[in-house]
What does this fold into?
Amino acid sequence: MRTFEYKAPETIDEAVGLLKEAGGSARLLAGGTDLVVQMKERATRFPYPGTIVSLDRVSELRGVDFSDAGGLRIGAGATMTDVATHPAARERYAALAEGAGVVGSLQTMNMATIGGNVCNAAPSADTAPPLLVYEAEAVIVGPNGRRTLPIAEFFRGPGETALAPDELLAELRLPVPPAGTGAVYQRNTPRKQMDIAVVGVAVALTLSGDAIERARVALGAVAPTPLRARGAEAALQDQTANDETFAKAAEAAVQDSSPITDIRASAEYRRHLVSVMTARLLAEAANRAKGPA
Amino acid sequence: MAQDTKVRKGTGTDGNGHTAVGQRVTRLDGAAKVTGKTIYADDMKMPGMLHASILYAPHAHARIKSIDTAKARAVPGVYAVITAADLPHYNRNDSNRQGLIFPDKEVLFHGQPIAAVLSEDPHIAEEAVELIEAEFEPLPEVLDAVAAMEKDSPLVRQPLRDVDRSEARGHASVETEETEQQGEPSNIASSVPFERGDVATGFAEADVIIDRTWRSAMVHQSYIEPHSTIADCDVSGELRVWTSTQAPFHIRTELSQAFGLPENRIRITATEVGGGFGGKIYLTELMVAALAIAVRRPVKYIMSRKDDMIAATPAPSAHIELKTGMKRDGTLTALRARLIYDSGAFPGADMLPGCILIGGYYRCDNIDIKGYEVLTNKVSVGALRAPGAHNATFAIESHMDMMAKELGLDPLEVRLKNAVAEGDPMPNGQTYPAIGLRECLEAIAGSDVWQRRREVEAMPNRGVGLAVGGWLGGLQPASAIVCLNADGTVNVTVGSADITGTNTSFQQITAEVLNVPLDMVNVETGDTKTAPYAGMSAGSKTVYTVGRAVKKAAEDLRQQMFELAMKRLEVEPEDMEVANCQVQVKGAPDRAMTFKRFGKLSTNFGAPFPVIVGRGAITARKIAPGFSAQAADVEVDPDTGDVTLHGYAIAQDAGFAINPLSVEGQMQGGASQGIGIALWEEMQYDEHGRLLNPNLLDYRLPTSRDLPPIETIIVEVPSEEGPFGARIVGEPSIVAGAAAIGNAIDNAVGARVDEAPITPERLLRSMGKL
Amino acid sequence: MPKQLISLTVNGREREVAVEPHWTLLETVREALGLTGPKEGCGTGDCGACTMVVDGRIVTSCLMLAPQANGRDVTTIEGLQSNGSLDPVQQAFIDAGGLQCGFCIPGMIVAARNLLDDNPSPTLDQIRERLAGNLCRCTGYTKIYEAVELAAQRIRGSA
It folds into this structure.
């Protein structure tokens, strides 16, 4: 690996200051499971960093907590293991715990952070579809202060986010899902573990009886960014939760997607999986919505 | 959950009365391995050592116009930059992959090494490689082996001459040779025909005919330790090489020929091999030795995973056209095959065994087999555990199931009906010695997987399938030394690399012959300067040949002690035996001399006995083919095409399992590689012959979540020549996986995929769902 | 770049090492500290041969930069045995035949020990799931599962 300057700030503001100072030639390091790989392979989407700003010592960025008023607050530096094992995440944001829990080996989960997963902005990022269906907000800190952005506006392209070069993602905030909500995330991979998702689907359904009060569907690995499947959501809104509705929504989800053919799968196969998985997960989400909380 | 090995006896075997062989023994080197103390090549460092980083060609076929190393050489910390022009003299042979270090004119595959940067800091070397400026003129790229055979195809390279097939012979010894490229230059490096009877007649007799093309992808050995080599040639003029290899003596001979150095001035140490599987024979050693000679300092080269995936010697892809016919009663009547193996830019696709095995599992009066080794502008290939066999077996074993299905016959019965046995002819005219194919089929029937198949088949999208696989094995001479120490313990020295626990088997063999506890015997692999010759640890022949030599050496040691004891014990050697760590008179154990005593009497000052050193040297002329039968229990997700393996069983004929614990490990390991080949493993290239998945993320090895526990059944049909009847063990287990899983998938959902790996996408297409 | 001094605990010992920022923890342990047990099988976090425990959790040390190890508590394979005796997990791997070439083993045993520290009675599925980040090409994993179950039994038995 080519060398670089290494900085280890202790606060968010210090980190932001370092980013600003470096004028675009610095990169934030959290778990390293994406960035270090890219640096070793010279496959960064940006010029090779002259400065690495490690977030290891910024304790403000860690922590996962839940309150009935504020919902789930996740520090961007929380690891996948932190998120996947957090009781509130598992109970109330099951799709997010599922997404965090499949990111790779246990070793990867122990190192990778949710902030890193989101900011690396791979179309296949496993925490992204769940964050989308839970309508998370990204809390961004820059030299001029804080701003929040709906997660759906955070992803701009493969590897590209709404962050300016001197901004960092500090936190993700997920509102409390409405009562009667069931959500699930699943992805399709060739092996049972260790792969990048061929397709990822997250679904959150809020039911009142059998009526779909609210539907959120998000797709990963089938478009330049993880995205909400708005057509599928429209096909679900106010409909009856049954197989026929789910099948229609699944077809709509295929229309919402624009997968490419790459070494992992063909576009055709991905479209097929979007259809199959969306229908299945809608049924699962409905079950979860009806079942014990 | 611990697996019971059901040891099934074949004909004439005897597992009783043994004290050391036939026992489950833990590995000699276990403690070192579990504590991280075992030294692999990358764990070594030495004073003055330089790290090498290699520049690889970015084109599959190109003329080299220029290589400018000025910028790279100027980087602080760079010691040297070496291109073809800077290499020391060596006897270059451009026709052989290992005969050419760096090309100076023509690049033949993407990833071909063309220059090296040396630095004490590996990071600096890596960075400096990026600064080498090389210019190329692209040439036509020939990337498809079938198209490459056409008369009007562009040529991959200049015609071949003096092709060296010694490495291939180490994997499989068959009494046939391929016909090398002759006449008009073409991309066909070699070919072979096998014929018997008349296939037209055979097809005419058939009640069902299957005619299909089977393709299997290029796959990588994916040893977890990449190629790792250190070389040093200092002022003494002795060339020292420490390298992760299965074949130290082969390397010594090759380097001797390359540099014109006598073999006794070359010392090759086979460091502990972190996985070889046939892919660690001879690859980087010539280059690293040349670099060491050029700079007169030790040079270390550790291939990165990426470089190893791109530029080592993966196993060839194959395109196999197979037509088979069967009568209503299950008799195989005709078999016609055209096997095309893609050898990459240099010959080396070991195609003979595949061409023999495709027609070698079953009796058939009419066969017509044509094999071709074809060159393309891809990285050249090597062996992966039974080279060429899994490709051929995927084809024939799929056909057997397909024909059985059409005729309403049981897949196991139809195989038993046609299976070859001792005395049957192989397609190349050789005759099978005693083999255990039938016995393996009978044994797999007793496996948990096969026993529950009706129950499993009744469940939706679940199925069970079976297939056989085999390997003929290699033959090479071998030798061993067994020394009696001053305290009566014993040291065994062999020259074979211990890649499979073979040294532990040698400990057992020696302890058995001398009738002593295992810990009285220690075993070491010496280097080529200190150990007697052994052939490469490949072709599954290490226990089969070196084990025989060890047994002979131990017997020689024993006989020497008997003869030395004659005067003191006052009987002839035939009235003596070894027991209780002593030589004793049969029937009168109190008339004895302990090994300890022998040790003292042969080493002390003024000792009356000469040093007691047992010597064993053998040549192996008879193959002892190993077969296995495997069964898979799969579940198919009919909408995604995903396949889950719920159970797997393998029955394999080991002849005599010197160490059942170790034999089971070989069976499970090989089977897992066959399963990987069946479902996930594939090297993917773009339209310019560049590898798209040079990493362990997208080249998918099975993880623990993908592989359930694998049931093993050891069958024993003794070989004629192997020690205690042992036969080849290491390779047969990889061969049947693709077919067994393909057959199980067909049983589950009635769909047949004729391309391995059987990916979910390919499966969905064959089910008509995509 | 000038080296930085980092302080970390390795296998129970306080160590101070001068590191380049672009070194990984794996490289630092192997080259600067001479602990060559952990291996580099891929360098990209896909094989697990470099697995170490850092602050109680297993990581792929080939992706951790050396400066990130400052102040941390690291355990490698070399740290498992004590006073010349093998850890029960190490012994179980030998007894069950759960090793062949040995290259994956340092990482595999560290991961297995970490599993048993968290869960002394894992089911087969839990074992398989927990070890999925450690690739083995030699064994097909069967005897590794047996080794972990054997170790668990023995540890429970002597608890």
Chain A has a mean pLDDT of 96. Residues 267-290 of chain A form the longest helix (24 residues). Residues 5-54 of chain A form a domain with the Uridine Diphospho-n-acetylenolpyruvylglucosamine Reductase; domain 2 fold (CATH 3.30.43.10). Chain A touches chain B through 22 residues (CB under 8 Å).
